[in-house]
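INPUT
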Amino acid sequence: MNRTLSITRPFQVRRPRLSRLVMAAAIVFASLFFLMPIYVMLVTGLKSADNVSLSTMWQLPSPITGGAFLEAWDRLASSMRNSFIVTIPATALSCMIGSINGYLLSKWRFRFSNVVFIAIVFGMFIPFQSVLIPLIKTLQFLGLYGSLLGLILVHTIYGMAVTTLIFRNFYVNIPNELIDAGRVDGAGVLGIFRHIVLPISIPAFVVGAIFQFTGIWNDFLFGLVVTPDPRVQPVMIALNNLSSTFSVAWNVLMAGALVAALPTAILYLVLGRYFISGLTAGSVKG
Amino acid sequence: MSESTAVFKRLRLRERSIAPVALVPSVLVFGLFVYGFIAATGLVSLSNWNTAKIDLSLASNPLGSYEELLGSYRFQCDLRNTFVFTILLLIGTILLGLALAILLETAVRGRRRTVFRQLFLFPYSLSFIVTGVAWRWIFNPETGINLLINATGVNHVLAVAGIGPLQPGWLTDPQVVLPVNNALASVFPPLAAIQTQLGIPVALIPVTIASMWQLGGFAMAMFLAGLSTIPEEVREAARIDGATEAQIYRRIVLPMLRPIMVSIIIIVGASSLKIFDLIVGMSGVGPGFATDVPGLFVYDMAFGAQRYNLGAAASLVMLLLVTVVVLPYLARSLRNE
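OUTPUT
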């Protein structure tokens, strides 16, 4: 905004050297804390099975081998595919539904629209344990239990809460005059959405898609309960099974954790900016 | 605002009725899958459904599941753990997030700040299962952190002093420290009926550290967003009035960060009350239920032991805890609209 006052900066005393040193040390320490698990996963994953011993866990691998990654990929590839099959459509669907809901709840308010909004947002916070038993029975009734389609449905419905919130907070900030302009052209509620609102919603779609992709990819509870069959399990359930199998060595497990985390990590590294704006968009304004 | 807006307002009136109608499918489906299912879970919790075979008949003692639940040693441990874990995690995450945000704000500029911010936030994009797997290896009592402790030479000093080596069992430690049972019972005698030792389970500490690793960056990003909304002029003015940096933070910056702090408490608090994945990936129920949580209890009862009524009752206790934290916040934002 207004930075003119910074011109007075020359009068500011420079911070004493000691406190600068303390702060630099604190940043280094924090960085080590945040990098440590990644370092451990990486060096352990690059070791061969007989090189992984309890006493050398912090040491760099010598020689570096990719065997653990190959084995982890072998064991997780089909569940990675399942995760993609679930995550991509569920992300797209819940974002589309969220954008329509958010538009209606922000630009066409009616008597109980705020109550409806809060009731939807509350669904974001509930522990899903409290809906699992009827959910399973309903999916069995619909013939969707144990299928990827069932899991897509579940993530689309429960994902609606956060996408409605994200889109609604986005649309609140677009001027009402834009909607009125659409009325002049004789467009209806849904016409205005299609021709005016949707084309300018790309930023909200990016934020919503990142949020949903990460959330659904990283989901554990729904995958565990809805798809017990190992052939249709998403990757996080497969990774957890890998970790409770005694025959699997630590190097394979660590490599597997990195492989399973790769899609969301790449998304984060490429679109980190949007990730951060999603955090503030994803929290209700108090 | 303008004249035209008034005209369109009238025009919009007819169109207006379309909005609620277009929302009907979403509201119906979501209403059924959230509120309908919660009600159904409520019915299950009052029923006789105790085996694989579905049985929704009302139990002769409808609240029997809840009585069994609150009397259960395991569930008492779970409530203790979820309470201790939530408090520790909230304090840890807020302090860590605030410290990181202030550090980045004051000591790092430009591109480097972005790099550190991305690094600290990175774990937030990972799954709790990945976090759990990595930290379980780090907190393995035979290796991991304990090797680093050895490397510092502390244990040589302790050996010379005749004290045993510092070799914490971390996730395998069944101890509960700082017991408060007697204190509680002396205040309110009926509480003597609690069989579980109330205090801080040592094995929960590594779990808290792992969660702080994952959520600390989230709190940092929220605080950074809050800090960026405080105009530099405000601080500049305080500086001209002779305030020290510490005073500026205590008297001006922290009070202005309050709304952000509330958001963090709600979001982190709600996710720690329903924590499940991290516990499964990192420690399971733990020694003597030291790291067990209600989320795991529900899963084991409903989908393991097929004690559906007990699992349903426990899940509604979880829901109640989350509601107590979240609802005042949502109600307030509704009022502010």
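end of record. The mean pLDDT of chain A is 88.
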